[in-house]
Structures are given as structure tokens and as C-alpha cells.
């Protein structure tokens, strides 16, 4: 069995791929440009990717390819319809990053709500020592127990975030398709208008693209904090940047972007230096424990495929 890993660097230098090496002949690449994908997978039986885009243009000459394993839960970077037509199986890794993403989501929210960046900068820059005053209490911050937290998406990550937010005392509302669950439900428009913290935990689809639209952003409270650890394109990035610049919302935390990495013309470049923003490089999923779980599950997915087991099979 020939296994090709196209973007190993996205899994981190510290991760052991031996569970995958035990299954066959492995060729790994730190990264792969779009122009090189077709050539590198031309003789592969199994392809492992994280962020690489796979579609008819680069899959049509991979005549031996039987299985694509995505090192993620989401698979919007893969043309599932072509895979189905070409009889190429696709397996994902559900649930492996729930704790990791929830932890980063809460970290961003806590930092932004409490204005930690501003307070830390006041001390680090020497202003505290020069002030002659024992404390500084501006900008004003509020206890989480006084706030409403709106969770968009009721899957594993959204539910975990809701549970932690509730433990901090927040009144939690959830926007989800399924009606069951113990958290009060709210439609997306109500959630955007009424909640103090809004965190996004939905996959990218035509239904969720620009779900957090300019109109919904305009309806938010002036102190609202928006956290996106889902997919960049589920929110209108320009509208979010404008809302920060124009002081229409209170804070913005983002780990995911419509283009990764984003370039100099991206709207977020205009607000990089703002105290009330927190941008991270798509790292929320990637705790050491989560990445090891991911590799272990991918190895299991490969074995399951050859054993005829459909667990985690998408196509």
C-alpha cells in the first residue's frame, strides 16, 4: 500500500506518524503546492491531507487512488461529488479537537471580555510604574456571570463551549438545527441582537457561508464580542473589520480565515494592531493531545477502509 502525506507540516514537527508508517510504504511532503498535487498522488493508494484542496483537476490522473484521509473534521476542501463518481472513499476524523478548540475559544473570550491585552500592556509599557496609583480599572470589564453567550452550532465543539460558558455563569443560548438539547434555543437573528458573546462553531456550507452577515453584525450590541474558530467564510470578514474600526462591536477573536494565510489586502490587516482583537494562525484545533488523536484515528480509518468498516466514512 502506497500512502502519500501531502502537507505534513500542518500536523506539527513534534507529531509521531509511526501508526501510519506501520500500514504501508509512506511518502511524506512537508507541503505541496497546487501545481504539484496531481504528480505526487499519481501512484498513491491512500492520500492523507489537512488543508490541501482536492478536486477533479488534481484527482483525475490518480488511477490507483482508493482512499482520502483528511486530518480534520471538516472536509469542505474536498470535492465529495467527484470522489463519489470516481469511487474514491473519504474518511474524516470527528471529535478529536473538541477540547482543544473549546479551550482556545474560551481563552479568546476571556481575554477580550476582561481586556487583558490592554491591562497587560499598561504594565509592560511602564505606565503602571509611572502612574503612582495602585490600580487601574479602565477599560471597564464585566463578569461572565452577567453576560449572555450565544453559541452558533450545536455539535460537539459548540456543546462543549456552551457547557464551559455555563460553568462560568453565563446565560447560554444556542442556535442549532436540531431542536433537542438542554440549552435554550434562539434563532440566529435574535442571538446576534441579544448576546454579549457570540461564538461560531458551524461547518462551512452554502447554508452557513456569510451566516454572520453585515446586517447581523450591524444588529449586535456595541460591546458584543465575536469569536470565530469555525471557518473564516461563515462570517463577513470585511463587515467584522469595519465594525471594529468603527467601534460598532466590542471585540473580535478569530482563528480561521477565508484565505489561509491571509494576504496584505485582507480586511483584517487594517485592525491587526487593535487592542480589542485577537488573531491566531488556525491553531485552535492543534493541541498536542488533539493532533496525536488525529493521527491515531487516521491510521484506524485506513485499516477500517481495507477491512470494509465504514466508521468515519463520508463518501
The CATH architecture of the largest domain can be named as 3-Layer(aba) Sandwich
Helix-strand sequence: EHEHEHEHEHHHEHEHEHEHEEH
Structural class: alpha/beta
Distance between the termini: 20 Å
Q: How many distinct folded domains?
A: 2
- Low-confidence blocks of residues: none
Q: Describe the largest sheet.
A: 6 strands, parallel
Q: Helical content, roughly?
A: 25-40%
Tell me the overall shape: elongated
CATH structural fold name of the largest domain: Rossmann fold
What's the level 1 CATH class of the largest domain?
Alpha Beta
CATH superfamily of the largest domain: NAD(P)-binding Rossmann-like Domain
**What's the mean pLDDT score?**
97
Helix count, per DSSP? 12
Tell me the Rg in angstroms.
Answer: 22 Å
Extended strand count: 11
The fraction of residues assigned to DSSP E strands is 5-15%
What topology, given as strand order, has the largest sheet?
7-6-8-9-10-11
Amino acid at each position: 500500500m502506497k500512502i502519500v502525506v501531502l502537507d505534513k507540516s500542518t500536523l506539527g514537527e513534534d507529531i509521531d506518524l509511526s501508526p501510519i508508517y506501520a500500514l504501508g510504504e509512506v511518502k511524506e511532503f512537508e507541503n505541496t503546492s497546487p501545481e504539484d498535487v496531481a504528480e505526487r498522488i499519481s501512484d498513491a493508494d491512500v492520500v492523507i491531507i489537512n488543508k490541501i484542496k482536492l478536486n477533479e483537476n488534481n484527482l483525475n490522473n490518480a488511477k490507483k487512488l482508493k482512499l482520502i484521509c483528511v486530518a480534520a473534521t471538516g472536509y469542505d476542501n474536498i470535492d465529495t461529488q467527484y470522489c463519489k463518481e470516481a469511487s474514491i472513499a473519504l474518511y474524516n476524523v470527528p471529535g478529536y479537537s473538541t477540547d482543544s478548540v473549546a479551550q482556545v475559544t474560551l481563552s479568546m473570550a476571556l481575554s477580550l471580555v476582561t481586556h487583558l491585552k490592554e491591562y497587560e500592556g499598561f504594565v509592560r509599557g511602564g505606565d503602571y510604574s509611572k502612574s503612582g496609583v495602585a490600580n487601574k480599572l479602565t477599560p471597564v470589564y464585566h463578569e461572565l456571570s452577567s453576560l449572555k453567550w450565544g453559541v452558533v452550532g450545536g455539535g460537539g465543539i459548540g456543546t462543549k463551549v456552551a457547557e464551559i460558558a455555563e460553568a462560568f455563569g453565563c446565560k447560554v443560548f444556542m442556535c442549532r438545527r436540531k431542536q433537542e438539547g438542554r440549552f435554550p434555543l434562539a434563532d440566529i437573528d435574535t442571538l446576534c441582537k441579544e448576546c454579549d458573546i457570540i461564538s461560531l462553531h458551524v461547518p462551512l456550507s452554502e447554508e452557513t457561508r456569510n451566516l454572520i452577515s453585515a446586517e447581523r453584525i450591524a444588529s449586535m450590541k456595541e460591546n458584543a464580542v465575536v469569536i470565530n474558530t469555525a471557518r473564516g467564510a461563515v462570517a463577513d470578514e470585511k463587515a467584522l473589520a469595519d465594525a471594529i474600526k468603527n467601534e460598532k462591536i466590542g471585540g473580535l477573536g478569530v482563528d480561521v480565515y477565508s484565505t489561509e494565510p491571509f494576504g496584505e489586502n485582507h480586511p483584517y490587516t487594517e485592525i491587526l494592531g487593535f487592542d480589542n482583537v485577537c488573531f491566531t494562525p488556525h491553531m485552535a484545533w492543534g493541541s498536542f493531545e488533539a493532533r496525536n488523536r488525529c493521527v491515531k484515528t487516521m491510521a484506524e480509518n485506513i485499516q477500517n477502509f481495507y477491512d470494509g468498516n465504514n466508521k468515519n466514512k463520508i463518501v
